């Protein structure tokens, strides 16, 4: 990548597009003025969000492709064929790098929706990209170059971790790290609700719950110790943690989390295999 600002376009300027755009800006990799996003005309919130960061915000998809070097496809899966249909119909030069973050939409499907010369990479980011703490993966399509892969890696590494994977892993990854923040937000909410039930003030309960998740997560990453060993370190003989863990096991906590990943993966597969709706 050259030192000049990369022109980044977003087809679909919703929650995840905004998180990535703000992450790229805070990483110093781009600026609002080098970005353009399209939204549905009814989506004035997203329209305003891109304007607020100094980007161009439009209600058509063709200018996004025309004005960008890298185009991020960030609509709902069911909207992808419609939005990319706009580009194909316009007959414009789409000799660009397209990064699709759409859940379940395969490289083969994307290549069919786009003009023939387009190069496609599938990416699965997650929402903490906003604060450059995301977990992203990417899969290169057949038409992409080494430079395309390098640009993608540089973009994704600027907003968190980045791994290159195979497309067969993407549905499970979407279920784990793509959706994962939502499960953790529920966990934080539930931890805090438990604290409040036992008499803690709400703000303290949220502060303790979120810091506990952050600290526990950092220990797994930074000590390189198996989570089961760390769990044992917390669990004193005849103590409170053992009592809490027993209750969680009785309620099927692990099974519920494992099952969530399984059904979320299946939902992605419905999109990949059974058509997009
Ligand atoms: N929200 C998340 O944490 C993550 C989302 N994703 C993927 O990102 C994509 C978008 O998800 P969200 O941002 O959550 O949804 P969202 O609903 O916030 O954003 C969708 C955007 O598409 C726009 N849109 C609708 N019709 C359009 C059209 N015809 N042309 C152009 N834009 C159009 C809407 O105005 C909206 O800005 C999905 O495919 C999802 O699978 C991937 C990883 C994480
Ligand atoms: O819920 C969804 O469909 C998207 C994919 C991963 C996170 N959000």
Automatic annotation (TrEMBL):
<dbReference type="Pfam" id="PF03807">
    <property type="entry name" value="F420_oxidored"/>
</dbReference>
<dbReference type="InterPro" id="IPR036291">
    <property type="entry name" value="NAD(P)-bd_dom_sf"/>
</dbReference>
<dbReference type="InterPro" id="IPR053790">
    <property type="entry name" value="P5CR-like_CS"/>
</dbReference>
<keyword id="KW-0028">Amino-acid biosynthesis</keyword>
<feature type="domain" description="Pyrroline-5-carboxylate reductase catalytic N-terminal">
    <location>
        <begin position="7"/>
        <end position="103"/>
    </location>
</feature>
<dbReference type="GO" id="GO:0005737">
    <property type="term" value="C:cytoplasm"/>
</dbReference>
<keyword id="KW-0521">NADP</keyword>
<feature type="domain" description="Pyrroline-5-carboxylate reductase dimerisation">
    <location>
        <begin position="167"/>
        <end position="270"/>
    </location>
</feature>
<dbReference type="InterPro" id="IPR008927">
    <property type="entry name" value="6-PGluconate_DH-like_C_sf"/>
</dbReference>
<dbReference type="InterPro" id="IPR028939">
    <property type="entry name" value="P5C_Rdtase_cat_N"/>
</dbReference>
<dbReference type="InterPro" id="IPR000304">
    <property type="entry name" value="Pyrroline-COOH_reductase"/>
</dbReference>
<keyword id="KW-0641">Proline biosynthesis</keyword>
<comment type="pathway">
    <text>Amino-acid biosynthesis; L-proline biosynthesis; L-proline from L-glutamate 5-semialdehyde: step 1/1.</text>
</comment>
<keyword id="KW-0560">Oxidoreductase</keyword>
<dbReference type="InterPro" id="IPR029036">
    <property type="entry name" value="P5CR_dimer"/>
</dbReference>
<dbReference type="GO" id="GO:0004735">
    <property type="term" value="F:pyrroline-5-carboxylate reductase activity"/>
</dbReference>
<comment type="similarity">
    <text>Belongs to the pyrroline-5-carboxylate reductase family.</text>
</comment>
<dbReference type="GO" id="GO:0055129">
    <property type="term" value="P:L-proline biosynthetic process"/>
</dbReference>
<protein>
    <recommendedName>
        <fullName>Pyrroline-5-carboxylate reductase</fullName>
        <ecNumber>1.5.1.2</ecNumber>
    </recommendedName>
</protein>
<feature type="binding site">
    <location>
        <begin position="11"/>
        <end position="16"/>
    </location>
    <ligand>
        <name>NADP(+)</name>
    </ligand>
</feature>
<dbReference type="Pfam" id="PF14748">
    <property type="entry name" value="P5CR_dimer"/>
</dbReference>
<feature type="binding site">
    <location>
        <position position="61"/>
    </location>
    <ligand>
        <name>NADPH</name>
    </ligand>
</feature>
<keyword id="KW-0963">Cytoplasm</keyword>
């Amino acid at each position: 990548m050259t030192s000049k600002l990369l022109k980044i376009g977003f087809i679909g300027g919703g929650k995840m597009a905004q998180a990535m755009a703000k992450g790229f800006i805070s990483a110093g990799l781009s600026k609002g003025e080098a970005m353009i996003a399209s939204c549905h005309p009814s989506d004035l919130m997203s329209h305003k969000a891109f304007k607020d960061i100094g980007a161009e915000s439009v209600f058509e998809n063709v200018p996004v492709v025309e004005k960008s070097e890298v185009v991020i496809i960030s609509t709902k899966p069911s909207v992808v064929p419609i939005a990319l249909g706009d580009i194909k119909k316009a007959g414009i030069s789409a000799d660009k790098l397209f990064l699709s973050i759409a859940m379940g939409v395969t490289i083969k499907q994307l290549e069919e929706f786009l003009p023939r010369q387009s190069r496609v990479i599938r990416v699965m980011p997650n929402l903490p990209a906003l604060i450059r703490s995301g977990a992203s993966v990417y899969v290169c399509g057949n038409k992409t170059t080494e430079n395309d892969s390098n640009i993608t890696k540089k973009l994704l590494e600027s907003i968190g971790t980045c791994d290159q994977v195979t497309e067969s892993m993407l549905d499970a990854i979407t279920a784990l790290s793509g959706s994962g923040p939502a499960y953790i937000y529920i966990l934080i909410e539930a931890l805090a609700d438990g604290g409040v039930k036992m008499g803690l003030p709400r703000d303290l309960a949220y502060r303790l719950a979120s810091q506990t998740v952050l600290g526990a997560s950092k220990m797994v990453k930074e000590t390189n110790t198996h989570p089961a060993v760390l769990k044992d370190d917390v669990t004193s003989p005849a103590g409170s943690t053992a009592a809490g863990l027993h209750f969680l096991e009785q309620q099927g906590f692990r099974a519920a989390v494992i099952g969530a990943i399984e059904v979320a993966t299946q939902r992605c597969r419905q999109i990949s295999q059974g058509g997009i709706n």
